[in-house]
What does this fold into?
Amino acid sequence: MKRSQWGRRYGRPVRLGKNPTKPTTRILATGNDAVRLLEHLYQHGAGRTSGPRVQALRQIMVQNYHRDQAGRLRWRTAEKEGGPGPPPSSRAVVSPYDTSARYARHGHIISRKGFAAHLTQTWAPTAPT
It folds into this structure.
């Protein structure tokens, strides 16, 4: 792929909206590029396939894409839509930079990627000495 093609394809983020035809095409093109990259690394990478970035990419691909009966790459849709469905958010990798970060939703408004911590506080009438 030429640099000008790379810039057009990956120069802006993909967001699904009300008319998902073009973003879906971009998502599938990105997936096919990632599959080609992984195949190239496994064929010619000699020792580079066990690195954390390659393993994160492989895991992200497995959780977001699947092959249909004809062998074509497809975006995973919700099980209620007849697709194989993505993994639960407690197991899904949401960042290639930190594979232990997770996606969380609080109610209908707040959603975030990262870590959740639950803190408690205790109080005693006397201070420690």
